[in-house]
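hi! just following up on the protien thing from before. the input was this:
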Amino acid sequence: QVQLVESGGGLVQTGDSLRLFCRASGPIFSSLAMGWFRQAPGKEREFVAAVSGSDGSTYYADSVKGRSTISRDNAKNTVYLQMNMVKPEDTGVYYCAARNLYVNMQPAHYPSWGQGTQVTVSS
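and the predicted 3d structure came back as:
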């Protein structure tokens, strides 16, 4: 099972940009679909963005579409989430997740998870 470690979270202000990182262990990173999810206090974990392991296609939640970019560097076993114009509702713990090849927007379909990184957006 792949190991995932997130970084890059912190306290930012409304309108700022931030970049999250997720580094994966293991030799099969290039074939993994990688997803970012987030969970706010008292709420369920929700899909944010994902990139396919088959063709590199990207997918976004409507709430972040147009101001976020997910990308991957297979040589570095790393996936990134760039978020611009952040809002207080972006606050939460951001998790990186992995599954074979194809993107799925449901957290239950991802067998591998990182420990999460906290993002707090102040108004």
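The first strand starts at residue 4 and ends at 7.
The mean pLDDT is 96.
cheers
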